[in-house]
Amino acid sequence: MSTPTTQIILGIDPGTVVMGYGIIRVQGQKVSLVDLGVLKPGKAKDGIKRLQIIHVTISGLVRQYKPTEFAIEAPFFGKNVQSMLKLGRAQGVAMAAALQYGLPVTEYAPKKVKQSVTGNGNATKEQVARMLQTIFKIEESPDHYDATDALAVAFCHHLQSGSGWKPPVPVGKKKSTTTKGQRDQWAAFISKNAERIRK
Q1: Which of 121, 51, 62 is nearest to 91 (CA)?
Q2: Is 73 a catalytic residue?
Q3: What sign results for the dihedral spanned by CA atoms 50, 150, 114, 127?
Q4: Sheet with 6-13, side-by-side order of all strands
Q5: For residue 172, what are the CA distances in angstroms to 26, 31, 122, 167?
Q6: Which tens digit of pLDDT belongs to each residue from 3-18?
Q7: What is the pLDDT of residue 124?
Q8: Taking 60 as the threshold, does the pLDDT of residue 31 lie above it?
Q9: Among 25-29, 70-74, 98-102, which is the least confidently predicted range?
Q10: Helix (H) or strand (E) holding 198
Q11: pLDDT for 153-190, tens place per residue?
């Protein structure tokens, strides 16, 4: 009987103020948490210095844990061009650090990560974190959702290999028993009473 191949996946949630990382080990059908946490390049006032911190830290994680795969969340498109530019730079530097060590790099859209982990592409960060706490039996609540977001990226990458795992019930969704007509009536009610809906 052959020994199952071991994969170590490093997942990154990019950011220039706080960047999350999550590392999992996959051996056969067994998936386990190796480490997760955050680095805080935002402590440095200079933007270039922040990028250096990201590169040095990612390089250190690669040398320490020797991942075989690198997955990172793709920047979302927002209205703030400056924020998008900074986020893109952070992502690029993190990817460059991985490529420097010969790691295959894969990026995933935020909705893809949420859909893979929770079954709901619009799940909140809290819902993603709770699902991961259940999957990996994490007892402590995260200080930063950046860490659990990064862990979600790593787990999403594993799921894309065709593990067949599915969340028991999609987070934030219930099986619908309403007809199309009832859904249309409900949509019309929400449209007319938007001010009454809590946000």
Answers
A1: 51
A2: yes
A3: negative
A4: 30-39, 19-27, 6-13, 69-73, 105-108
A5: 28, 24, 8, 12
A6: 668 999 999 999 989 9
A7: 94
A8: yes
A9: 25-29
A10: none
A11: 999 999 997 765 666 556 665 444 444 554 555 455 45
Residue 184 is among the residues annotated as catalytic for this protein? no
- Does residue 139 have an active-site annotation? no
Mean per-residue pLDDT over the chain, rounded: 84
Catalytic residue among 146, 149, 184, 195: 146
pLDDT, position 78: 63
Which is more confidently placed, 11 or 87? 11
* Domains of the chain by residue range: 6-196
The CATH T-level fold of domain 6-196 is Nucleotidyltransferase; domain 5 (3.30.420)
**Which whole-number Å values give the CA distances from 57 to 2, 67, 152, in the listed order?**
35, 14, 20
The position carrying tokens 């994490």 is 138
**Whole-number Å distance between alpha carbons of 6 and 27:** 5
Question: What is the 3 state secondary structure string of 110-163?
Answer: HHHHHHHHHCCCCCCHHHHHHHHHHHHCCCCCCCCHHHHHHHHHHHHHHHCCCC
Q: Catalytic pick from 69, 73, 184, 195?
A: 73
Residue pointed to by tokens 């930063």 = 144
| pTM to 2 decimal places | 0.80
Euclidean distance between CA atoms 179 and 175, whole angstroms: 12
Q: Which amino acid is at 62?
A: V
CA angle 101, 102, 106 (to 5 degrees): 110
